[in-house]
Design a protein that fits this description.
This protein has 250 residues and is α+β, with helices and mostly antiparallel strands. It is 36% helix and 18% strand. It contains 9 helices and 10 strands. The longest helix has 17 residues.
Length: 250
């Protein structure tokens, strides 16, 4: 897997976005605030509506339906709440209105490949819910007894869009120095251009299909069993480090 530098860059969402932007990888405009007082001054610097989230969290912690703000007053309240609850800076982004996808990547260098693209169907969310795959969708609305039918894999999208998504995913993977495996979240802007939301160098890998873990889901769509997926990651790591896999297995 990825080294500590990549893990740190991915966890610090602003630093990760700075690296992506410097490498020409599209990502939504953003600013970071350490006090709610800054919000009203900085909000006009990027397009509304806005989406706010804690700077250093994972697994959708602190990412809820309430974080989408359509006015400066709403944004100020959201930021104030997040600062108080999570005791860390808040990242505010221009909210991208288009479709969302997540993409598993296996391998390194020129051999890195994108697994079948997973599309998110926000129509599966409860009526009136914002088009956000956040904490509620992952941990409250999606249960073993009533799984949330939100994923489509492979995504049924035009080949040109699929290629554009794959290109931006691999560019992000390489820009942050990901190794062996990762998952990259992508969302389209109003013009249909893919933008990277986040890079996940430690993606979820739950083996049970009922758990809606996206990397194993994409691997299954590619014809890989769970064992095959883990094996491919091990093979990539061995090749990268010059370790003979047969010697490891012995």
């Amino acid at each position: 897997g990825s080294d500590p530098l990549t893990l740190s860059l991915a966890l610090d969402k602003a630093r990760g976005k700075q690296i992506l932007r410097s490498c020409g990888v599209p990502t939504a405009d953003w600013f970071v605030v350490k006090s709610a007082f800054e919000t009203r001054a900085l909000a006009p610097t990027i397009a509304s509506p806005w989406f706010a989230k804690p700077l250093h969290e994972g697994s959708s912690r602190g990412i809820t339906q309430a974080n989408l703000a359509r006015s400066v007053t709403e944004l100020h309240a959201v930021v104030e709440d997040l600062l108080e609850r999570y005791q860390q800076p808040v990242l505010v982004e221009s909210f991208l209105p288009g479709a969302e996808f997540t993409c598993g990547v296996l391998g390194n260098g020129v051999s890195a490949e994108v697994l079948p693209i997973v599309a998110l169907d926000f129509g599966a969310l409860p009526p009136g819910a914002a088009p956000v795959y956040g904490f509620e969708a992952k941990w409250i609305w999606d249960t073993p007894s009533q799984p949330l039918d939100i994923f489509e894999c492979p995504a049924r999208i035009p080949s040109a869009l699929a290629q554009a998504i794959q290109d931006v995913v691999l560019a992000a993977y390489r820009a942050l120095g990901c190794r062996d495996w990762s998952r990259v979240d992508v969302r389209l802007d109003a013009g249909g251009t893919p933008h990277v939301i986040e890079v996940n160098p430690l993606p979820g890998i739950l083996p049970d299909p009922a758990d809606n873990s996206c990397l194993p889901k994409a691997a299954r769509a590619a014809g890989l069993s769970y064992g095959d997926l883990i094996g491919r990651c091990l093979e990539a790591a061995c090749e990268r480090t010059g370790v003979r896999l047969d010697a490891v297995l012995q």
